[in-house]
Amino acid sequence: xxxxxxxxxxxxxxxxxxxxxxxxxxxxxxxxxxxxxxxxxxxxxxxxxxxxxxxxxxxxxxxxxxxxxxxxxxxxxxxxxxxxxxxxxxxxxxxxxxxxxxxxxxxxxxxxxxxxxxxxxxxxxxxxxxxxxxxxxxxxxxxxxxxxxxxxxxxxxxxxxxxxxxxxxxxxxxxxxxxxxxxxxxxxxxxxx
Amino acid sequence: xxxxxxxxxxxxxxxxxxxxxxxxxxxxxxxxxxxxxxxxxxxxxxxxxxxxxxxxxxxxxxxxxxxxxxxxxxxxxxxxxxxxxxxxxxxxxxxxxxxxxxxxxxxxxxxxxxxxxxxxxxxxxxxxxxxxxxxxxxxxxxxxxxxxxxxxxxxxxxxxxxxxxxxxxxxxxxxxxxxxxxxxxxxxxxxxxxxxxxxxxxxxxxxxxxxxxxxxxxxxxxxxxxxxxxxxxxxxxxxxxxxxxxxxxxxxxxxxxxxxxxxxxxxxxxxxxxxxxxxxxxxxxxxxxxxxxxxxxxxxxxxxxxxxxxxxxxxxxxxxxxxxxxxxxxxxxxxxxxxxxxxxxxxxxxxxxxxxxxxxxxxxxxxxxxxxxxxxxxxxxxxxxxxxxxxxxxxxxxxxxxxxxxxxxxxxxxxxxxxxxxxxxxxxxxxxxxxxxxxxxxxxxxxxxxxxxxxxxxxxxxxxxxxxxxxxxxxxxxxxxxxxxxxxxxxxxxxxxxxxxxxxxxxxxxxxxxxxxxxxxxxxxxxxxxxxxxxxxxxxxxxxxxxxxxxxxxxxxxxxxxxxxxxxxxxxxxxxxxxxxxxxxxxxxxxxxxxxxxxxxxxxxxxxxxxxxxxxxxxxxxxxxxxxxxxxxxxxxxxxxxxxxxxxxxxxxxxxxxxxxxxxxxxxxxxxxxxxxxxxxxxxxxxxxxxxxxxxxxxxxxxxxxxxxxxxxxxxxxxxxxxxxxxxxxxxxxxxxxxxxxxxxxxxxxxxxxxxxxxxxxxxxxxxxxxxxxxxxxxxxxxxxxxxxxxxxxxx
Lengths: 193, 796
Hints:
The complex is a heterodimer.
Chain A: H1 6-14, H2 18-40, H3 43-59, H4 70-91, H5 120-135, H6 138-149, H7 154-161, H8 165-182, H9 184-192
Helix pairs in contact in A: 1-2, 2-3, 2-4, 3-4, 4-7, 6-8, 7-8
Chain B: H1 2-15, H2 21-33, H3 35-53, H4 61-112, H5 116-154, H6 159-162, H7 168-186, H8 190-195, H9 198-203, H10 208-227, H11 231-236, H12 242-250, H13 254-263, H14 276-288, E1 314-315, E2 321-325, H15 331-341, H16 353-359, E3 373-382, E4 385-397, E5 408-415, H17 426-438, E6 445-451, E7 455-463, H18 467-476, H19 485-498, E8 505-512, H20 523-535, E9 538-545, H21 552-561, E10 566-569, H22 572-581, H23 583-587, E11 589-600, E12 605-611, E13 631-634, E14 638-647, E15 672-681, E16 689-696, H24 707-723, H25 733-742, H26 751-765
Helix pairs in contact in B: 1-2, 1-3, 2-3, 4-10, 5-7, 5-12, 10-12, 13-14, 15-16, 16-24, 17-18, 17-22, 24-25, 25-26
């Protein structure tokens, strides 16, 4: 079972095999949660979205058609759920007090006490990096995360974001440009090494 | 400049491997000439690699449970909806029917004027039909339970081999037979029951009758069919009717049928499921890695624990001998700690009391003489049951001096698949590994093999003197790719074989987070390999990391097969404990196949119960059988076992068996309390040696109970509480805390203090979870379930 393709698993699940659902959950819980986390910027919302996605998988399992890869489909679902979450959040009343560009993202990178202190520098660059990512415009952020984090191909990203291939190319390019400008330290550090 | 902009864009695309050949050509040509674009290329690369290094956040276990619960709720709701739908369909059908009957009646009434006969006939059939239908529904439900019952009994671990399930034909036959009986009991024959008033049709009933009921039936069939995993099979073989359909639909019966097919003798090929081979494979692996017992509800946490059936009290007259293999694993304690530190009580089956007790080192005297260990016993009152006593049996392995240590040849087999990227996995392993290397002896040899997408030799056998080389190899480890353990383990064994040190300590140490996908044809092959290498003198130890997908049962079994130890590492502290302080016991086996057999004296002891060691209990014949594998003892290690004892004078009754008619049991009076017999082999030996020691009644302590005893019993009591054991008696957290604090001793490494903290945590978690319920509004009756319509559309 563990060696089987996602597509085989979902087909199995569609014919009623609950084991297959477990496998899919195991495989996708982390990617989906992390994608939602990067999209939304806080843990609570990402948790909501993650559970929504899996419930969609249960209630609308037949909506998946084997014409696309399963990962594409489930990321599309995640993206849609995240976007409606963002919309709700925008509508919600707290947004009156909190400007969207205030960068007041919740602290969800749990500080790591268990590792030796020589990791502090690394943690510093990591938090810089996540900050830089959260500063990206949403679409760019999405595209670069799908590409770099989840190793999606341009075609898959195109499908997920429901846009043209050229747009994907430009989004990723721009995201890289901005990251490059915001993170000179990381780049120079790598150069030295 | 604009040109550069475009080129850069192309570079970005090219970097992701999405460029067309022509674009590729342009980029490559440009990169050759343009310095600044080459730099850009480098920058893209470094951004990409640092992005990839960003850690993936873990889901909190809490969230996983929440999702599982929700999914289950949704599934239940769907099921109910389905039922409702069919009832609605039936209702509508019934409505239409009655309408038509009415019409008919009126019509015939008008036509013939014969009123009573028709109406009576229709009514009779109608009521009979309704009653029969109701009974059948009830019976169907009963039948479902019967199939569950079958599943529960046959599906149980271990019984699978001994008792193959009835062949699918038989099984189906059984269901059919039962259905027939039920129909018979309902007083209708099957046909007339399902099709209802078909008998009526013969007389003068309109076509629509049949259509309506036919449709109703189809709906039902379709429902069971669409959900059933084996729909195709049903359609092909013999299309089963509602009874079979129900069975497939309802129980988690995919599994039942699964086992069915794989263990059943060959039957007609057309009745075979579609992918027979795959199913076979699964059943084979199940024999080797027993899966946790199936739960009725889909449990989504994929951490796998074997069900523990606690040892019960045994009456000494019937079972004077208690035999078990020692266990030096400690993984259960670290796992329990992980749960408690996350603010959760551990699942009961994750608590193995003997592993918790053995996590701590006790202060037993060093052995004297030739035996590699000393046996220590102590008997005192049982803290959680004042009428009982508790016997402690402790083994102390010989501490080896540095020059006695055999040279070792260690191969670390490290899982570097993507899942190891979490900070509590590979990074933790790396820092622990560095500590370990720091105290390597110069003549010890270390190699590192990694496995992910493919297996690789990162460090060929290197002497402990050359620490620099080892350190730099450790630094090079990074996670990425999927897991394929088969190749890795093969390579690791090859490396170990190549550097084999005769009379040395040759060992493969596997570090993984549990998803040990086996590249070989089956798990059975891997076990065979491990056993074969063990016999060739290469042992296997396992270090477990991480959470969520952790396969506890599997890991323990692997280590067990390889004559190794199994540790669960959840923190830097634990890593230090295992790799640095217990190095001796981890690496230097001083005795193998250590078995204990205790004979109790019935004149002193009425009944006894071995606490923990559930999966180490052996048959009494195995004690003297040298071919039976048992646990290993490492240098300086201690092993502790506890027996709860019911003294001979106790009025308690155990095991209600009538006195034997033809035999007379004669009890020889003696002051002996019990005799502890122990068998072990030298690490290289094939013959076992016997040590035995008799404990006198007068050795029972009434005061001056030792620190060892107090601490070991407090750990055991804690375990009983966590397991919510039926034998916990008066066990309570305050007693555990008191005794643990009292017997903390010097505790130079802080393990016992940590234990006390854990107990406090667990105690605080014991407060009923009442207040944590969602939507708890302060009073009990204000609890509004999540499914309430008032929450429809609201953020949950």
